[in-house]
Every structure is written in C-alpha cells, then in structure tokens.
Design a protein that fits this description.
Layout (H helix, E strand, L loop, with lengths): L5 E7 L4 H12 L4 E8 L5 H8 L4 E3 L8 H15 L3 E4 L8 H6 L4 E5 L11 H8 L3 E8 L9 E8 L6 H24 L3 E4 L2 E4 L2 E2 L4 E3 L6
Parallel strand pairs: 1-2, 1-4, 2-3, 4-5, 7-11
Antiparallel strand pairs: 5-6, 6-7, 8-9, 9-10
The chain binds 5-O-phosphono-beta-D-ribofuranosylamine.
C-alpha cells in the first residue's frame, strides 16, 4: 500500500539554494514527502525560478504590500492553513514571524541557521565566529519558536575553521553543509522519526538530549 503523502511548503526570500538541495533530495529519496508550494515574500526571488523549473507551484506574498506585519502574517497563515502542510520549511526566509503566527504552526515550522546554535543567534554569524577565534562552526536545523533562532535544535553539521578564513569563505562552506543537513532532517521528519513535544525534540519517540550531529562527511 502506498504511504500517505507528507506535504511540505517551503518559504523563501532569495536564492533558494537550500530549496534546490531539498528538491534534488526528494526527487531521489524513498520518501512520501513532496513540496506542494513554494511561497516567497519577494517577487524577484531566484528560488521561485528553481521551483518552477521543478514543476512546483509558487506564490508570492509581497510583504511590501502590507503596512502592518500582522497583516502579512495573516495572509501567509491563511495560505498555509488552506494547504495544511505537515512541514513548513523556512529556507532563507528573511521575515521575522510574529509570536502568534509561530504558535499557530508550532511543531510544523523548521528553519536552518548558519551557526552552531545556541551560539550566534541572529545575523553576521561568520564574522562573529572569526572575531571570537572559534575553531569550529557550522549550521543548525531547528524548530521555530517565538524567540528568534532559539527553538529546539534537531541536527547540526560542523566544520573546522581554517587559518586565514574570511567570512565569505566560511559562508560558502557552511552553505555546502546546509545543503547536506537540511534535506536529511526533512527526511527524518517526513518519515515520522523526528517530532517536537513540549519544547523537546523526539527522535524515534525518545527525547533527544542533544542535536543529531552530521560531520563534514555526509556519509557518516
Ligand atoms: C542560508 O544560508 C541559511 O543559513 C539562511 O539563509 C540562507 C539562505 O540561502 N537562513 P538560500 O536562499 O537557501 O540559498
């Protein structure tokens, strides 16, 4: 018997390289997951073209058309409610969502952030890692909660900072890791292996004490 589909909506604002990695993963994986829509808050986001090239329906909810943040959130929530996806993937979605929005979709919303959370929430993570002299850096997939970049972490991928690294180089290497990590985490959720319960991540039904860890070798 075929498995029931697991519907995913991806929210983007820009290039959509993570979206591309997820599309490619889903095309070859043994998974019931499928992207039912890609929504951008920017009409010219390149990720919309990537989605269309893959035959995925797209929509634009232009934040500039709304004077109030709450009105934009309501429009987005209405579309998500109609689609009723299992997973809402934030992939370079550069809008802060209101607490009311996040609470409404709690447990469905996930994000990828370019740092080893809880370190370096917010912006400019690569420069801050270099300024601190850290030897390791990476990215985190986490459930979205009202506090920015503070939700329970599902999985992380780690790299070593090399002497002479500049923020742009680190950004490229971290993004390459993101393209491995995000599809993997989505695959776990789609398979029903990962869930959010009372602000804790369950993995195979057991509370996960610390994030799943992906080394720079994605085969491990
Ligand atoms: C990613 O690097 C992610 O860390 C951050 O936004 C970036 C989006 O890139 N949240 P892309 O649009 O997926 O290429």
């Amino acid at each position: 018997m075929s498995r029931p589909a697991v519907d995913i909506v991806v929210l983007i604002s820009g290039s959509g390289s993570n979206l591309q990695a997820i599309i490619e993963y889903l095309a070859q994986a043994d998974t019931p997951a499928r992207i039912v829509r890609v929504i951008s808050n920017r009409p010219n986001a390149y990720g919309l073209k990537r989605a269309q090239a893959a035959g995925i329906e797209t929509d634009v909810i232009d934040h500039q058309a709304y004077t109030e943040r709450a009105d934009f959130d309501r429009a987005l929530a209405a579309e998500l409610q109609a689609l009723n996806p299992t997973i809402i993937v934030l992939a370079g979605f550069m809008r802060i969502l209101s607490a009311a929005f996040v609470e409404r979709f709690r447990g469905q919303l996930i994000n990828i952030h370019p740092s080893l959370l809880p370190a370096y929430r917010g912006r400019d993570t690569h420069a801050r890692v270099l300024a601190a002299g850290d030897q390791t850096h990476g990215c985190s997939v986490h459930y979205v909660t009202p506090d920015l970049d503070a939700g329970p972490v599902i999985a992380q991928a780690v790299l070593t900072v090399q002497p002479g690294d500049k923020p742009a180089q680190l950004a490229d290497r971290v993004q390459a890791l993101e393209h491995q990590l995000y599809p993997k985490a989505i695959g776990w959720i789609a398979a029903g292996r990962v869930a959010l319960q009372d602000d804790q991540v369950l993995f195979d039904g057991v509370v996960q004490p610390s994030p799943r860890y992906l080394t720079t070798d994605p085969s491990q």
